[in-house]
Amino acid sequence: MTKIRATGISGDSLFRAIVVPAFMSVAGALIALFPGNPLKMTLPSRDAGVFLYVGWRFLNGDIPYRDVWDHKPPLIYFVDALGLKLAPDSLWGVWWLQFIFIFFTIFLIYRLLDKEFSAYAAIAGVITLASGLLSILDLGNVTEEYALIFQALSLWLFIAAWKKDFPGRSLFWIGLCGGFAFNFKQTTIGLWIAYALILFMVRLSQRKSPLKDFLPFSIGCLVPSIVFTLYFASQNALADYWDQAFLYNFVYIGKHEGIRRLIPVFIKGFLHLSSGGVLYLAGLGWLTGLAYAGSHRKAVFETIHPLVLVALVDLPLEIVLITVSGRSILHYYLTPLPIMAILAGVLVFTVYELLKNTRYAFLQKLRSYAPAILLAAIILLQFGQFTHYPEYVSEAASDSYAPVIEYVEQNTEPDDKVLIIGAESVVNFLARREAPTRYVYQYPLALLGSRLMFEEYFNQIRANKPALIIDTRGRAQLTEKLYLPLQKRSPIVRDGVQYLAENYEQVAQFGEWFVYRFTGGAH
Questions:
Q1: Which H/E stretch holds residue 176?
Q2: Is the dihedral of CA 9, 12, 13, 14 positive or negative?
Q3: Is 469 helix (H, G, I), strand (E, B) or coil?
Q4: Where are the beta strands (DSSP E) in 104-189?
Q5: Which runs of E-coded beta strand occur in 97-155?
Q6: Distance between CA atoms of 251 and 244, rounded to whole angstroms?
Q7: Closest by alpha carbon to 215, among 199, 231, 202?
Q8: Is the pLDDT of residue 173 over 90?
Q9: Please, how many CA atoms are within 13 Å of residue 102, restricted to the half-sphere of its CB?
Q10: Mean local confidence (pLDDT), 83-110
Q11: Alpha-carbon torsion 265, 267, 268, 272, what sign?
Q12: CA distance 152 to 143
């Protein structure tokens, strides 16, 4: 491949190569993660509560999917289990793992942009990334967050591979990063789709077959999934793994109101990225990158910077992958942040490059100042983020249901089971009380409406006799409108609901949450 020339300052000192990016990475990670640190945050988010619960149960001998039902790929559970192993009685272990992942994500993005474009582009990209994380990450510990480092690492590897005409070993490592990202969240693979498309077009332009390139690339992608398949097969959990992490998600993405009705929802979701100008910087970077690519259209693969090419191809793919679920959930918008950070750098780089060929003398004079002017504008765009920061912190610290945890701890024994009707499994985790059923939350029951799953659910409840039931539906009566369609279809479900009515009495209320205590025989 043709040697790439970047606009960065020549000479790479230790200070510029390590100290500056390390400082920027620490600052960016702290800005993003401080609102959700365990000293300030009262409760983890709903999704994080599930992951933490599964990680805790794994440390106690349970197997994900087989013993606890959830539909995310497996890596999140093992990361949370590691964090809980490091700090068993707090969330600090998980928080520090998040810090490490975010630190190296920012570090890699900074070093890549500095190496390929300039220090101005690197600072612009890191500010954009940190601002986006602050807006979207919320309480943290979500699947997309941990995949970011593999996106950043793969970008570094891809640019290095481009310069060497894509050696097979490099393609394997790029694919392996994709395999890890996929096993955090399936929709994080936009970058690897972009790599495959670009590699295919490059080989066609060279009149070469891409098949020999896709072999190591594909093997790398598959290695993590093969390892997990073998592991779950050895634990008699392979069918559960396949049903929950894959088949259920196909049903999940099919249950929505139609894309036409969801377009306003997704627009609202992307507008969360307008804070700090992240959305606008990425859009401008994409447009100036397109103009830059147009100026190299006669020999696009020989003269265009590959980082620009990757960004142009990947951003539309990220948008499609976010919308494919049919739902607009805040943390879904973490996935495009690395490429949006790259696009902020692309904006600085391509404006400088495009002004090179302008016919206007005053623009030629402006060219050398353009990166600094753009960086100053990006910094000014963060004023709103700066003034709103105390609200980010206070929002993470506010949760009226934190007293529920204390109540559960004081009114049950460590070996007692606690059933949450709803999706607040964070209560089970923080109180360290096991659920009486593997359906620690009941969304899959409601979505699938499977009679067998509901019957398993009630059989496990009756067998394990939870000491407390916490109904988060806001119903004044425990059995009010409880699984009515399934009661009509299944005598086991009907008898199970009757069992709850006869053996539990209301003893406390926390807002719209009602607490019921077991009144039957020994449990």
A1: helix 168-182
A2: positive
A3: strand
A4: none
A5: none
A6: 10
A7: 199
A8: yes
A9: 34
A10: 97
A11: positive
A12: 15
Sign of the CA dihedral running 28, 33, 35, 40? negative
Question: Taking a C-beta distance cutoff of 8 angstroms, is the pair 475, 441 a contact?
Answer: no
pLDDT tier at 12 (50, 70, 90 boundaries)?
low
CA atoms within 13 A on the CB side of 293: 17
Residue indicated by tokens 């918008």: 333
**pLDDT given for residue 10 in this prediction:** 41
Question: What's the pLDDT score for residue 258?
Answer: 59
- The answer, yes or no, to whether residue 361 has pLDDT greater than 60, is yes
Give the Cα separation of 375 and 368 in Å (integer).
Answer: 13
| DSSP annotation of 441 | S
Cα distance between residue 466 and residue 519, in whole Å: 10
Q: How far apart are CA 353 and CA 4, in angstroms?
A: 13
Enumerate helices (H) and strands (E) in the chain, giving the number of each.
26, 4
Q: Which of 127, 195, 171, 181 is nearest to 149 (CA)?
A: 181
The CB-side HSE value for 331 (13 A sphere, CA atoms) comes to 17
CB 153 within 8 A of CB 180: no
To which residue do tokens 């365990």 refer?
38
Alpha helices per DSSP H over 206-274? 211-234, 238-242, 248-254, 259-271
Q: Are 307 and 342 in contact (CB under 8 A)?
A: yes
Helix (H, G, I), strand (E, B) or coil at 510: strand
Q: pLDDT band for 521, please (50, 70, 90 cuts).
A: low
Q: Sorting pLDDT into bands at 50, 70 and 90, what band is 42?
A: low
Alpha helices in 243-400 (DSSP H): 248-254, 259-271, 278-295, 300-303, 306-323, 337-354, 361-367, 370-380, 383-397
Helices (H), 324-336: none
| Amino acid (1-letter code) at residue 185 | K
Question: What SS3 class is residue 265?
Answer: helix
DSSP 334: G
* 209: helix, strand or coil: coil
What would the 3-class secondary structure string for 61-98 be?
Answer: CCCECCCECCCCCCHHHHHHHHHHHHCCCCCHHHHHHH
pLDDT over threshold 60, residue 523: no
The closest of 185, 192, 184 to 161, measured between CA atoms, is 192
Report pTM. Answer: 0.93
Adjacent-strand bridge partners of 470: 420, 515
How far apart, in whole angstroms, are the C-alpha atoms of residue 59 and residue 189?
29
Strands 504-510 and 468-471: unpaired
- DSSP secondary structure string for all residues of 186-205: GGG-HHHHHHHHHHHHHHHH
Characterize the bridge pairing of strands 513-518 and 418-421: unpaired
